[in-house]
Every structure is written in C-alpha cells, then in structure tokens.
Write a structure and sequence with these properties.
about 200 residues, about 75% helix, single chain, mainly alpha
C-alpha cells in the first residue's frame, strides 16, 4: 500500500474504532437535531467542523501550534457536553440567534479542539515529510466521519419511525423526544469522560 493509502486508512480507522468514542459521540450529538429536511443545515455544521479540525490538525502537526495533551483530552468531552446541552436547551432554532445559524460557528470552534486531538495521535507516526501523511490522514478522517454520520442518519430515522408509530403521529413532540433523549444520553457519557480526564 502507498504512503497516502496507509495514512488514509489510519485516519479512517482513527474515527471508526472504539477508541474514537469521543469523536463519534460528538458527531452523534451534532447530528441529533437534524431531520431529513434539514440536510443543508447539517451539511453546514459538518463542513464547519471539518474546517476547524483541518486547521488545527495542520497547525499542530507542523509544530506551529503546541497544545498540552491533557488539556485537549479534557476539552474534547467538554465540546460534546456543550453540544448535547445546547440540543436540549434550544427548542426553536429558527426563532433563535441568527435563525440557528450560529451552530456552524460553534461547531467550527469545537472542530479546532478535535483537530488538536487528532494531531497528537498523528504526530507520533511521522518519519519524514508531513504533506502526504497530513493530507491522507485528514482524508481518512473525513471518510470515517461520512460513515459515522451515515449510520447516525439511519439510526435517527429509525428512532423517528418508532416514535411516530408509538405516538400516532405526534410530529414535533416525537422529534423533541428524540432530540432530548439522545442528547441526554450523550451528555451523561461526556460528563463522565470529562471528569475522568480533568487535568487538575
């Protein structure tokens, strides 16, 4: 396998394995509020996250930005926690700040944190030039994210269908149950992670 292919595989595996539970939880928290008709908003949020983590991954791997590992490992579950709490707190995004479009901005900021986490892993694998490994690893992460988000979309659609059948078409009420239920589960797991990783 070529060097590029090796790093694409490493990036992909870094997202889709059990050790990447924190990143998977973040993607699940991010996706929890979206329905099929919200695909444009979901695309903006995921693109912002990608932009954020790509910037920090590049800066951290090249040595232009040095961040303490313990702080980054603590901040990652904090981003999950905040995203889950925001899901629960905001009932009507269209009536909220900038009609709910602020979400892409804070997702980009959280992407900066996650990118630093990716960089700590990738930096340990370098043996020479960084251009190919950085590009390949980032591409692998994106492919892994697409797989995780695709599975999340199927999972969320299944929950929506189940709630609609049980609620006999409660519509928005079923959707709200889904958002709050899933986000609460994510918040509980993220809070525990944050406590376990606290740097003090």
């Amino acid at each position: 396998m070529s060097e590029l292919g090796t790093f694409i595989e490493l990036g992909f595996r870094h997202i889709v394995n059990r050790e990447a539970l924190d990143h998977i939880l973040f993607l699940l928290a991010l996706a929890a509020i979206y329905r099929r008709e919200d695909w444009r908003d979901a695309l903006w949020a995921v693109s912002a996250f990608t932009l954020g983590h790509s910037i920090t991954l590049g800066l951290a791997v090249t040595g232009a930005l040095v961040l303490p590992t313990r702080v980054i490992e603590f901040l990652i579950p904090v981003t999950i926690l905040v995203t889950g709490l925001e899901n629960i707190a905001v009932r009507n995004r269209a009536a909220g700040l900038w009609h709910g479009r602020y979400r892409a901005g804070f997702t980009a900021v959280f992407g900066l944190v996650h990118g630093a986490g990716f960089a700590n892993y990738l930096r340990s694998l370098f043996t020479g030039s960084i251009a190919t490994p950085l590009f390949g690893f980032n591409l692998g992460i994106e492919l892994g994210q697409l797989v995780v988000l695709g599975m999340a979309a199927i999972f969320l659609a299944g929950i929506d269908r189940l709630l609609a059948l049980r609620g006999r078409g409660l519509g928005l009420a079923s959707y709200r149950w889904r958002v709050v239920g899933l986000s609460t589960a994510v918040v509980v797991v993220a809070a525990r992670m944050a406590l376990e990783r606290r740097p003090w």
